[in-house]
């Protein structure tokens, strides 16, 4: 694993990049939840699944988290930083499909930026449909994605259960927003979905 610092217009981002032993068959770029923590089990699991299929995998810690803040800034700063980091990684690893995604808030960022990043697919781990105590719903962010989408959602997630977008699917697993209860099913779902993207 290689740790990179990538300068963006909104400050430096940190990237943990894992390359396969041979030429990468594709690139998976994932962002964290709102806290900015890139060591969550579901993110690491997704990276291992991608590596097992010969893809490179990158975990992106956004500038606000690198700076020690635990709450994303308002506006488009995080989207812009994720787009810039993804572009840099893609220029380095141009072969195969580009898959973007993330956990919770990171999945929202990947949905909103899927067109500008040129993503071939989006993986959302625990998509935060709406805050447990109210609105607004973020369904529009998910529904607007035009490339294939995989959403892995805990059956008792307090953030709710989104509707699948036209080009996507939702895999419901045991547990809540943490996605800690059913790693085998999560691994199988991500692997099957990535296999389909790699076969195109």
Which fold name is given in CATH as the topology?
Rossmann fold
Can you count the beta strands?
8
Which homologous superfamily in CATH is the superfamily?
Answer: Alpha/Beta hydrolase fold, catalytic domain
Identify the quaternary structure here.
single chain
Give the end-to-end Cα distance, rounded to a whole number of Å.
28 Å
| SSE pattern, N- to C-terminal | EEEHEHHEHEHEEH
Number of domains: 1
Reading off the top of the CATH hierarchy, the class is best stated as Alpha Beta
How many separate helices? 6
Most strands sheet? 8 strands, mixed
General form: globular
Low-confidence spans: none
Which percent range fits the helix content? 25-40%
Rg value: 15 Å
Assign the structural class, choosing from mainly alpha, mainly beta, alpha/beta, alpha+beta, or little secondary structure.
alpha/beta
> pLDDT average, as an integer?
96
CATH architecture: 3-Layer(aba) Sandwich
Q: How is the largest sheet built, in terms of strand order?
A: 1-2-4-3-5-6-7-8
Characterization of the model:
With 200 residues, the protein is α/β, with parallel strands linked by helices. The chain has a single domain, classed as 3-Layer(aba) Sandwich (Rossmann fold). It is built from six helices and eight strands; from the N terminus they run E-E-E-H-E-H-H-E-H-E-H-E-E-H. The chain has helices at residues 41-52, 63-66, 77-92, 105-117, 139-143, 183-198; strands spanning 2-8, 11-18, 27-31, 56-61, 98-103, 121-125, 149-154, 168-173. Strands 1-2-4-3-5-6-7-8 form an eight-stranded mixed beta sheet, sandwiched between helices. Strand 6 (121-125), helix 5 and strand 7 form a beta-alpha-beta unit. Helix 1 (41-52) crosses helix 6 (183-198) and helix 3 packs across helix 4 (105-117). The radius of gyration is 15 Å and the shape is globular. The two termini are 28 Å apart. The mean pLDDT is 96. Residues 67-180 form the KANL3/Tex30 alpha/beta hydrolase-like domain. It comes from Tessaracoccus flavescens.
């Amino acid at each position: 694993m290689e740790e990179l610092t990538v300068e963006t217009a909104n400050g430096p981002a940190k990237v943990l990049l894992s390359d396969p032993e041979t030429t990468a068959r594709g690139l998976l770029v994932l962002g964290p939840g709102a806290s900015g923590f890139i060591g969550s089990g579901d993110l690491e699991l997704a990276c291992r699944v991608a590596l097992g299929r010969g893809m490179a995998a990158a975990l992106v810690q956004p500038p606000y988290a690198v700076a020690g803040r635990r709450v994303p800034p308002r506006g488009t700063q995080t989207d812009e930083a994720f787009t810039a980091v993804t572009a840099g990684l893609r220029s380095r690893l141009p072969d195969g499909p580009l898959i973007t995604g993330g956990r919770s808030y990171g999945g929202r960022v990947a949905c909103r930026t899927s067109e500008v990043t040129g993503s071939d697919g989006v993986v959302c781990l625990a998509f935060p449909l709406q805050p447990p105590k109210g609105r607004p719903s973020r369904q529009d962010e998910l529904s607007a994605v035009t490339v294939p989408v995989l959403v892995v959602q805990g059956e008792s997630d307090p953030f709710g259960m989104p509707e699948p977008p036209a080009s996507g699917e939702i895999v419901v697993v045991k547990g809540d927003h943490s996605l800690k209860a059913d790693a085998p099913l999560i691994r199988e779902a991500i692997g099957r979905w990535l296999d389909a993207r790699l076969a195109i």
